[in-house]
Amino acid sequence: MSLKEVPNAFGPPVASLDPPYARTVLFSENVEQPRGIAVDPLRGFIFWTDWGQNPRIERASLDGLDRQVIVNTSIYWPNALALDYEKGRVYFADSKMD
Fold this sequence. Notes:
Layout: E1 34-40, E2 45-50, E3 56-61, E4 68-71, E5 78-84, E6 89-94
């Protein structure tokens, strides 16, 4: 049994056991200490947190393009992420802030 490509309305397939999508590194630059991750398959985005020298929350399209920092002020140790699909909101927890 092999996993076949999962169609993605926003770009290339996002899952497969067969090349070229068997393993894809989306981000290898400017990533220091990634923590939380969340995927919005409806809008075609992946979100993640980074605790590095410049803490931030970023998003990109599922193919790794259109990378954007969405939060980088008043943030210290961004950890968990949660998405509200209906309202289109991103929620996060910061381990340094109470």
